[in-house]
Amino acid sequence: MQEWAVSDDGAAGTARMPNQPVEGDSAEPLNNPCRGGTDDRRVCRSNTAMRSDSLIEQFFAALIAGDRPASRQIVHAQAADGADAQTLITDLFWPTYDMVERLHRADKLSRLSYQLATRLLRVLVDQVAAALPLTGNGPGAGRTIFAFCGPADADELGAQMAVDLLEASGFRVQFAGGGIANDEILAQAHEERPTTLLAFCSAPSDLPGIRALIDTLREIGACPNVQIAVGGGVFNRAEGLAEEIGADLWAEDPLELVEMLVHESDRRAEPEQRTVGRKRKTRAAA
Predict the structure, then answer these.
(1) Secondary structure letter of residue 154 according to DSSP
(2) Taking residues 98-116, what's their average pLDDT?
(3) Secondary structure element (H or E) that encloses residue 11, with its range
(4) 138 in a domain, yes or no?
């Protein structure tokens, strides 16, 4: 069985057999998560809880300073203490990313610090996610997800963490990122017929496009059985927004999203919940 270590050169990392040394790297390898099945509500729940404010603040400080060795050392130390790949993503990477995004939106983080942090975090996420299982036999097996971000493209790193965990839970995932035109998304959904269409939005400016996409899907009856799920910062900041635009399912963080997609695959929005397109239909009827 292969295990994974975060490389010290900032590259994507190299898979190796357990205990095989990496030149210039004395840290312990990351353990492969989610070994064996689980009937727990938590999908692939880790046995190790590592989340703490002091750890997140330490990691945050290293990221915004662009301190690559210090950031890697924090990850190595947590892995040596038993944290697996999922734990690193959900208990370290995600809350730190959320802090970076919140401070950036509030103009309390310079553009330079923001980009140093997000570029470095993306490298670490890529390296650690390589240790997630990709057997296709998890609780999401047999279901497909087409995921994308809004036009602003700002939440792509958060979306990446979510889709990595979804794939590790057995879903077959296609992730297009941001900046994709609605007609291309509709064409892809029509051709592939995914179980779930998953949209991530970070900025209010993303919402008109997402609204229009859902409106079109509902009006033309394209993929009538598809579940529409949403996630991202804009929905966390505005309670009820996901319901208003007609989403079937929404979540505040990646692990909650995985759990809901696994355990609430039949959940659909009530007709009275959906406000998208109502005004246009009313005008047309008049």
Answers:
(1) T
(2) 93
(3) none
(4) no
Cα separation, 53 vs 212, whole angstroms: 39
169-182 burial by CB neighbour count: b if 16+ within 10 A, else e?
bbbbbebeebebeb
**Three-state secondary structure call for residue 208:** helix
Separation between Cα atoms, residue 167 and residue 258, nearest integer Å: 9
- pTM of the shown model: 0.74
Burial class (CB in 10 A: 0-12, 13-18, 19+), 78: buried
Residue 126 is part of a domain; what is its CATH number?
A: 1.10.1240.10
Distance CA 208, CA 204 (A): 8
Quick one: average pLDDT of 228-239? 74
In a domain, 219, yes or no: yes
In this structure, what token pair is assigned to residue 248? 């079937």
Number of compact structural domains in the chain: 2
> Do 158 and 94 belong to one domain?
no
Q: Residue 192's CB: how many other CB atoms inside 10 A?
A: 14
CA distance 284 to 286: 5
Tell me the residue type at 126.
D
pLDDT tens-digit series, residues 15-54: 333 333 333 343 334 444 343 333 443 444 444 455 689 9
Q: Determine what percent of the chain is predicted with pLDDT higher than 70.
A: 72
* Phi and psi based region of residue 244 (left: phi greater than 0; alpha: psi -120 to 50; beta: remaining): alpha
Proportion of the chain in helix, strand, coil states, percent, rounded to 5: 45, 10, 45
Domain that holds residue 156: 144-279
What are the pLDDT digits (tens) for 142-181? 899 999 988 766 668 888 999 999 999 999 999 998 888 8
Distance CA 218, CA 199 (A): 16
Angstrom distances, CA of residue 9 to CA of 66, 83, 120, 123, 242:
14, 22, 12, 10, 41
